[in-house]
């Protein structure tokens, strides 16, 4: 898939998330949308299935999600009839917890290997097997300092086009969309690869 990133970003400036998704679907042969069922994820998932009901939904389940997140995931999957492809780490969390003595702190030398095992490896495996040419994601520029340097359309190191339809949206925008479409939400969420919310987990810095 060949996209002129500068031209695409210029063309999509000021467009709504729905218009951005429509552009993405129109310009790809094998799109997917990624989710971790964190807060507000039902927004991007709802928008994606409105544009393409059978779009592949990639969920890398680390095995460390909260009970509330798993219940939320099941509800959204059923409510939106999501075409979910779930990928999990090659090692169980129980075994890893023994070998690494729980979840390593960010300063621990084991943390990078932990992140590779529970997030990066299964994600890379998924991309290799599913072979998408375009990846819709829910990143927003107000989430981390790194993301403020990104644009709506970018490319992964493997050449997959990454599109962030919600890039310029705020929490208030997301709340309004949830209310308008009567969508569920869940704030009881935990990412074991992050110590704080505004820290990158590696997906958007390394892939």
From TrEMBL:
Gene Ontology BP annotations: sulfate assimilation, phosphoadenylyl sulfate reduction by phosphoadenylyl-sulfate reductase (thioredoxin)
GO cellular component: cytoplasm
UniProt GO molecular function: phosphoadenylyl-sulfate reductase (thioredoxin) activity
Pathway involvement of the protein, from the record: Sulfur metabolism; hydrogen sulfide biosynthesis; sulfite from sulfate
InterPro entries xref list: PAPS_reduct_dom, Rossmann-like_a/b/a_fold
Every Phosphoadenosine phosphosulphate reductase domain range: 35-185
Family of the protein in this entry: Belongs to the PAPS reductase family. CysH subfamily.
Name the UniProt record assigns to this protein: Phosphoadenosine phosphosulfate reductase family protein
